[in-house]
């Protein structure tokens, strides 16, 4: 083991990726089957809806839940491998965790919370406290060393939790919904603060979140988990431009359909065809933003190639415009101005004509399968 | 509002930012709290007679004997009777043996409670039932059972005597053993309850920081359940202080050596009623003072 009391930046790092894992966990009806790789210094967000298995993945990586199969390897050190009968428990892994509600020890001061890790790793009381004081200063809480967790605000508690996890110099840092316990105002500041510290962390970082904004801002790379499986991964630009599942499309605010392309025509499973501006062949995704749809009371004349009759299924306010849920041959969402909605007399059940310009669509191959 | 300190403090001082915002937190009295709407006078006047009457009878039943004790106390001769030989000895022995028994119960009972609450092993339900047996067993039967185990011709008695030179029956050590046997379930049940109620995720957080199970227990679990341990110890101590049946069966009734206060009361009752009353009064005062002094600090009202 390396000396845990030194700050991470000064020590010799062992070789290998910060994380190389294939997580297999069977829990009755639910099965997690996900491969994850994180390079040293890289920040990866594990993004997915509730119940996707994000927390299960985090617990397996931290050593709080043994794998059913696969492996967890951190910096070349095998931590969990059921086939080889290897299981290193949480207290002997060099993996730091910032829990969703922080779990600061309520009976210890902020300083002793942060000193807990170094002390558990065998440093003297004085040395642990010195390391802890240094970390609290780094996260901007030098004035709060003697505060008990209940005296700290949400944002301050989050910083203490981060300092506590980093004070042992983890090779892998795990954050479980790091900002979800905070209110909107605190969230912005804390997100920026977190970004700063994660960028300076030499080990790998995995952020588990269901908030796409946190993922996009904090992470270098996104891994999307749905129903226990990785459905898409890549950098923010790729994922926002070319979503591959309904969940991702909704996250980034796009209408998404899967179909078969033949030239500039895409046939959707129901037989409905869309005309696109790009030519492609074979299985494809077609995506277009809600703003690309125009709604008309009568069948429009003129240029749009894609026109269909739809039923308004719902309306909701979305920023300064209205988001209209449309049913019909295609289930889509359309963003229009309140004035346009009033002119169209839209209400649930109204019949409208939807028009989509070919140039507003994006087509990309469905190569995942 | 942001999550300022008073809002974030929940009962027990555990910092749970989410829940504290979702439900009204039970704040400690030192924190500012919004005035809670009191039930209106009409609502309070509407206690049904079918509940009120039995409640009052029950209260009287509990309080009247204590009143009888106070009324019949020979206040004029109290001081001279207190000085009577044997009384201070019995009191000292009672306090000492109850305290030692509580210490013994803490040393062995807290780990036992931890085992029952935190380790999943086969037969756990059976073990838990066995632990509570002394609770329902008539104490005299407990005393007989102790004799059969630790008596001169019991299961372990001869071995204890030949190996360590320890004889338990009819000694002060025997008083401590008898009291521990009867009182330990109170401690184990209280501590196990506290352990089950405490959030194991704090222990997981400690483990991710590199703390082994012993360190986690010492530095996280034990401080978090401290109120439960203390209230369990108080219950345990009170039970040990009042122990009669198992003590007289296993340790006998030798003044200065095994005669505790309850035994002295029983003996005095046959010879000198006023002395029995004085002894009872002392026992009552000691129990009430200690319980009251600990209650505010440690035993949270439900």
Describe the structure.
The complex is a heterodimer of chains A (369) and B (302). With 369 residues, chain A is α+β, with helices and mostly antiparallel strands. Chain A has helices at residues 54-62, 110-120, 125-138, 154-166, 184-199, 212-218, 236-241, 246-252, 338-344, and strands at 19-27, 30-38, 43-47, 69-74, 77-81, 86-87, 95-98, 172-176, 204-209, 221-226, 229-234, 255-267, 273-288, 293-296, 306-318, 321-327, 332-336, 351-356, 362-365. Helix content of chain A is 24%, strand content 36%. In chain A, α4 (154-166) runs parallel beside α5 (184-199). The two termini of chain A are 43 Å apart. In chain B, α11 (200-208) runs antiparallel to α12 (213-241) and α12 packs antiparallel against α15. Mean pLDDT of chain B is 82; it is low at 1-33. The chains are: A alpha+beta (369), B mainly alpha (302). Chains A and B meet through β7, α2 and α4 of A and α11 and α12 of B.
């Amino acid at each position: 083991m390396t000396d845990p009391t030194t700050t991470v930046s000064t020590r010799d790092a062992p070789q290998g990726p910060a994380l190389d894992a294939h997580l297999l966990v069977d829990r009755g009806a639910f099965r997690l089957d996900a491969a994850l790789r994180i390079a040293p210094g890289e920040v990866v967000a594990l993004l997915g809806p509730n119940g996707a298995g994000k927390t299960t993945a985090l617990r397996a990586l931290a050593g709080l839940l043994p794998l059913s199969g696969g492996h967890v390897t951190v910096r070349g050190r095998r931590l969990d491998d059921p086939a080889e009968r290897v299981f290193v428990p949480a207290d002997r892994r060099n993996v730091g965790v910032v829990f969703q509600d922080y779990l600061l020890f309520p009976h210890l001061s902020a300083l002793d919370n942060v000193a807990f890790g170094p002390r558990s790793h065998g440093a003297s009381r004085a040395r642990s406290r010195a390391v802890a004081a240094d970390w609290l200063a780094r996260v901007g809480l030098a004035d709060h060393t003697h505060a008990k967790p209940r005296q700290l605000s949400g944002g301050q508690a989050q910083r203490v939790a981060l300092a506590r996890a980093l004070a042992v110099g983890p090779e892998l840092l795990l954050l479980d919904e790091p900002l979800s316990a905070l209110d909107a105002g605190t969230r912005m500041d804390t997100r920026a603060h977190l970004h700063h510290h994660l960028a300076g962390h030499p080990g790998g970082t995995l952020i588990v979140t269901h908030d796409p904004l946190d993922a996009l801002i904090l992470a270098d790379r996104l891994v999307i988990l749905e129903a226990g499986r990785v459905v898409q991964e890549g950098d923010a630009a790729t994922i926002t431009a070319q979503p591959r599942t309904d969940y991702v499309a909704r996250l980034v605010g796009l209408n998404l359909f899967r179909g078969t392309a033949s030239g500039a025509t895409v046939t959707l499973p129901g037989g409905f065809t869309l005309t696109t501006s790009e030519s492609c062949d074979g299985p494809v995704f077609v995506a277009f933003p809600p703003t690309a749809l125009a709604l008309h009371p009568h069948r429009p004349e003129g240029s749009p190639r894609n026109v269909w009759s739809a039923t308004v299924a719902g309306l909701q306010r979305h920023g300064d415009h209205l988001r209209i849920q449309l049913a019909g041959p295609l289930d889509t969402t359309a963003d229009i101005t309140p004035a346009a909605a009033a002119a169209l007399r839209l209400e649930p059940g109204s019949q409208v004509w939807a028009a989509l310009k070919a140039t507003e669509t994006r087509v990309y191959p469905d190569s995942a399968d | 509002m942001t999550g300022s300190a008073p809002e974030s403090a929940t009962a027990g001082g555990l910092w749970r930012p989410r829940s504290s915002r979702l439900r009204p937190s039970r704040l400690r009295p030192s924190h500012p709290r919004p005035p809670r709407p009191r039930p209106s006078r009409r609502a309070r006047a509407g206690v049904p007679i079918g509940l009120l009457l039995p409640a009052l009878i029950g209260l009287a039943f509990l309080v009247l004997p204590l009143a009888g004790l106070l009324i019949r106390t020979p206040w004029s001769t109290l001081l001279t009777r207190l000085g009577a030989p044997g009384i201070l000895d019995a009191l000292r022995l009672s306090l000492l043996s109850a305290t030692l028994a509580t210490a013994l119960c803490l040393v062995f009972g807290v780990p036992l409670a931890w085992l029952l609450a935190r380790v999943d092993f086969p037969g756990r339900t059976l073990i838990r039932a066995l632990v509570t047996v002394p609770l329902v067993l008539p104490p005299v039967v407990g005393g007989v059972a102790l004799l059969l185990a630790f008596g001169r011709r019991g299961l372990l008695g001869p071995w204890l005597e030949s190996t360590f030179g320890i004889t338990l029956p009819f000694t002060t050590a025997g008083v401590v053993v008898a009291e521990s046997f009867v009182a330990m379930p109170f401690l184990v049940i209280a501590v196990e309850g506290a352990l089950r109620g405490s959030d194991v995720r704090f222990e997981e957080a400690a483990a991710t920081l590199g703390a082994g199970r012993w360190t986690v227990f010492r530095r996280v679990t034990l401080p978090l359940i401290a109120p439960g341990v203390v209230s369990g110890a108080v219950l345990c101590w009170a039970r040990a202080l009042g122990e009669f049946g198992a003590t007289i069966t296993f340790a006998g009734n030798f003044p200065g050596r095994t005669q505790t206060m309850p035994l002295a009361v029983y003996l005095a009752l046959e010879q000198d009623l006023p002395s029995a009353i004085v002894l009872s009064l002392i026992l009552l005062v000691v129990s009430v003072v200690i319980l009251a002094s600990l209650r505010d600090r440690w035993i949270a009202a439900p």
